[in-house]
Amino acid sequence: MEDLYVDQSYQGQGIADLLIGECARYTREHGALCLTWQTSVKNHRAQAVYDRCGAMKSDRWLNYTLSL
C-alpha cells in the first residue's frame, strides 16, 4: 500500500479501517500473500489505526534514506 490518507474532516469515522480492509480484500483476491506499508515512527495516530486492523510491525526490514 503506497499512500493512505483520509481528509481531516473525515478522520475518526472508521474510513481508514474500511480502506485498509478493501485493500486487503483486493490483494487477497489477486493472489497476494501480504499487504505491506510503512509509516513514520512519529505518526502515532496512523500506528494506532494499523495496530487496530491487526497489522504486525515487521522486524524483517530496515528503511534507509540517503539525503541529497
Care to describe what's here?
By secondary structure, the chain is mainly alpha-helical. Helix content is 35%, strand content 0%. It is globular and about 35 Å long. The mean pLDDT is 90.
Beta strand count = 0
Structural class, by secondary structure, is mainly alpha
The CATH architecture designation is: 3-Layer(aba) Sandwich
Low-pLDDT windows of residues: none
Relevant CATH superfamily = Gcn5-related N-acetyltransferase (GNAT)
List the total number of helices.
Answer: 2
Broad CATH class: Alpha Beta
Protein name: N-acetyltransferase domain-containing protein
Organism: Rotaria sordida
GO molecular function: acyltransferase activity, transferring groups other than amino-acyl groups
Pfam family, one: Acetyltransf_1
What labels describe this entry?
68 residues, mainly alpha, Aminopeptidase, 2 helices, 35% helix, 0% strand, N-acetyltransferase domain-containing protein, GNAT_dom, Acyl_CoA_acyltransferase
Summarize the SSE layout with pairings.
Layout: H1 15-29, H2 44-52
Quick rundown:
Residues 1-68 form the N-acetyltransferase domain. The chain is mainly alpha-helical.
